Amino acid sequence: MRTRPVTLSLAGVMIASLAAAQTPQTITGTGGNGIVGGLVPRDAGPARPAPRAATGRVLLGTATAKEKGVWLPASAGSILAELKDIPMQPWARALRAARELDQLEPHTRCKPSGASRTFLTPYGVEFVELPELQAIYIFDIGGPHRWRTIHMDGRTHPHDLKPSFYGHSIGWWEGDTLVIDTAGYNEGFWLDRYGLPHTDRLHTIERITRTDSLTMKYEVTLDDPGAYTRPWTGGFNLRWEPGTELFEYVCQQANYAHNLMVGQHQSVDRTSPIVP
Questions:
Q1: Fewest Cβ atoms closer than 10 Å to its Cβ: which of 22, 32, 143, 206?
Q2: HSE of 173 in the Cβ direction (CA atoms, 13 Å)?
Q3: Is residue 103 part of a domain?
């Protein structure tokens, strides 16, 4: 697989790239599509029907090995839901407000981000389906450069789950929709770019539907009685970036954009025992 290394010798380029990685901006390219991450988008042309396997099921990636592409947020301001509609408990609302000020997001410090945050990276995600292994892998291209494993073999969640960033995921198809049931999350990541919290009681049901060649609908129902007063559902769209492959990404090497790790303040209060 070809790689696209991050160039570290040009400080100006790195600063712009790293800033774009965590503070997305909308730029209009030749295709007229908005893009997250500060890169000019490739012209994907008009939308076509979603590619399908020989079995007739929709594909989340490309139809042939020669085609390349990744999924990016459809807009720079992609959010799960309007803040007023999210049923946060008082402590969770206060923590989110504090995170928005300090911006100490674990993702900017190379930590994996589970659930919805996986899909909000400006570098995109790649789906790799391996029917022979009865598994689907979701590669988080930027940041920690990690992957999620979706078990498609009919198993259930273990009773002795050890909390982890991505949790334990099992999946199945409902028509053209991939349904992912995940439990066993740890508390080390945010649910979105703006600080939505959760606890290790979080349980998610994600529904991923490719509606055409350029569009994917992402919907998630979150049940976390530790942080929210009731289960709630949010979501956003992803857009296809043709021609882009998984590339080399060295998280934090020569990171000049320190404000993306510690916020805009002169100093950051680190006395709180609460993990950001």
A1: 32
A2: 15
A3: yes
